[in-house]
């Protein structure tokens, strides 16, 4: 049965998106209202503001600003791994409700210039995180260099993932935004404390799609068809090891046009994130990568939030539900705020709808 | 000795650029004057206008329009391989001075929608070309499909090159704008009737460079560092099998901004093409891919025109000379015409200069 019949009217728990960029200021005001449009009531908020969030107090002040925009969302906060973070900072942050710490290798993506050059100095921090149950979120790319390009940066990072896991087997680690078959396999080879997030857009894209389209260009970049199909299959494998983290990354239109010669990396999926996942599975069925039978209600519920909530140990006390509708909606052309304009992924294309129950 | 000392003041024959896009109308008027700025007096003109040039009369009418802009340039004309081209058309075109025929696989680049789906129907055309000494110029990429992406499109085309060469060993074939180590090796493995052109920009670029920079995005896309280094070494191998074809491809700024979601493929190098080649070798020396000693006057003269003229059987009766200068020039920010604006490759960066003697 086509998904449009099978899931039209399906009721699911509100989605949880375990990797979002909500920015600050005018962009935050434009973006936060789109969280619920995308079917989510829980978001795991990235700390790469300018300057990055390296203390619990900064993260909590940011959380307060987010709550001013929409207090109905459960914002899960992270810190930015940085030399100022000590084991004492970790434990203090944990006590104040900070959930994890995100590591960016220096220079690989938007606002990562304060990132990590080597993991070894952070071993005491990882020990403290392991002890107090904080999650380590890894941007899994090596910085480009002699033989490292944006195409093999993730595959070259995987030995680091495995060695961190071997050294800290009780540390919960998320390999964020997996884009390659290699990454999927590496996460599978690790123990249950290592999981991977998958974005909505990487379920759609290959390299050809972003090469000439700034609104599909993100880091890590989408790779080959075989990589995309590995992601689709991982999203549906039902093991709980892979779940949604959209990496929705809004940039003002001016930063996407490449007028200065540089296009900002990031795809904006927040307003349709649940809907896009449904559409991606439909496209994969058309490509004959999966069949309708592979997309069950249980797996959908898991990928869209259940698996992630379980890994992070979060319960959704709101018990909010969304209803999926296969209707006639099309993706809005533009989202606007106060002097900010953001073009969403797949603008103008047809999409599933969601209703809040 | 650094190239800046070794070649400052060096006198060379005017360069020949064996792959240029000069467009038509206002863009042509903006671009043709830049041919001499780039040190060239001979250009091999691509036929992918809209509609494409599929007859000698159209190509000669275009040549007349080009000569109106600058009669001092030797414009070598090609036709666009198309079902309307018969053996009789080939022979008639040759008699009228048309030099070659360019084949575009359907859909791979700018204005290639009328391109070739299969080579077999053109075997009689290739036989006629072989007989009358016309050159076949191949855009060597397979159209993207199931497992073909813009990254492996060229490598996947190479068996086609080899089988065409095996079937038509006397047909002169140019594999245009080689971008991979694989392509260089394939050209080397073929007999002397198969050569390859190399652009100036592919001597500089890898995938990371164009991913976020529309002004470095072209088809075929720049690949890995190892590919770039293979191109640099091929350009300097002194065999005569590889020579300059810049594929300079101007697009109006509006088509590069991706405002509609699509960025036009093409890098504009025409005004500095000789200068850029010098700079590329300097950068390769810095990367320790080659040494100063690898860049000799003889090889430079060959790559910049001598090898190509020899392959095409062209003599430069003008005997014009250029002089290289390592000065303080920077690449202009913008080239403008009547309602057209083109941003050149490496705008604002320092460059060699040339003077006409």
TrEMBL record, chains A, B:
Main enzyme class: hydrolase
PROSITE patterns xrefs: DIHYDROOROTASE_1, DIHYDROOROTASE_2
Recorded GO MF terms: dihydroorotase activity; metal ion binding
GO CC terms: cytoplasm
Keywords: Hydrolase, Metal-binding, Pyrimidine biosynthesis, Zinc
Domain of life: Eukaryota
Gene3D superfamilies to which the protein is assigned, alphabetical: Metal-dependent hydrolases (3.20.20.140)
Pathway assigned to this chain's UniProt record: Pyrimidine metabolism; UMP biosynthesis via de novo pathway; (S)-dihydroorotate from bicarbonate: step 3/3
Cofactor: Zn(2+)
GO biological process: 'de novo' pyrimidine nucleobase biosynthetic process; pyrimidine nucleotide biosynthetic process
EC id: 3.5.2.3
Family, per entry: Belongs to the metallo-dependent hydrolases superfamily. DHOase family. Class II DHOase subfamily.
Stored HAMAP family: PyrC_classII
Protein name as it appears in the record: dihydroorotase
Gene: ura2_0
């Amino acid at each position: 049965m086509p998904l449009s019949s099978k899931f039209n009217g399906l009721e699911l728990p509100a989605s949880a998106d375990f990797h979002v960029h909500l920015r600050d200021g005018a962009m935050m005001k434009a973006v936060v209202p789109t969280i619920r449009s995308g079917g989510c009531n829980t978001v795991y908020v990235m700390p790469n503001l300018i300057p990055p969030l390296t203390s619990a107090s900064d993260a909590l002040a940011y959380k307060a600003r987010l709550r001013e925009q929409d207090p109905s969302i459960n914002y899960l906060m992270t810190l930015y791994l940085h030399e100022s973070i000590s084991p004492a900072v970790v434990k203090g942050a944990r006590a104040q409700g900070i959930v994890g710490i995100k590591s960016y290798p220096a220079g690989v993506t938007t606002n990562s210039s304060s990132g990590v050059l080597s993991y070894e100095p952070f071993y005491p921090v990882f020990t403290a995180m392991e002890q107090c149950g904080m999650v380590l979120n890894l941007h899994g790319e090596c910085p480009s260099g002699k033989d490292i390009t944006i195409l093999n940066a993730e595959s070259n990072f995987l030995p680091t993932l495995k060695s961190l896991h071997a050294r800290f087997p009780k540390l919960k680690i998320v390999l964020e935004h997996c884009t390659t078959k290699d990454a999927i396999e590496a996460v599978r080879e690790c123990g249950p404390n290592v999981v991977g997030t998958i974005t909505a857009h990487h379920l759609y894209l290959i390299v050809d799609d972003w090469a000439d389209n700034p609104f599909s260009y993100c880091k890590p970049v989408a790779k080959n068809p075989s990589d995309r199909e590995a992601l689709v299959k991982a999203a549906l494998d039902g093991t709980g090891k892979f779940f949604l983290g959209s990496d929705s990354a809004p940039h003002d239109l001016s930063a996407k046009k490449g007028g200065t010669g540089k296009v900002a990396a990031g795809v904006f999926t927040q307003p349709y994130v649940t809907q896009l996942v449904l559409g991606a599975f439909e496209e994969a069925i058309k490509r004959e990568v999966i069949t309708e039978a592979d997309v069950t209600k249980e797996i959908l519920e898991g990928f869209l939030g259940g698996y992630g909530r379980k890994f992070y140990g979060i319960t959704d006390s709101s018990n909010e539900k969304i209803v999926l509708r296969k209707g006639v909606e099309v993706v809005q052309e533009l989202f606007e705020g106060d002097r900010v304009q953001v073009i969403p992924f797949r603008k103008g294309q047809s999409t599933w709808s969601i209703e809040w129950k």
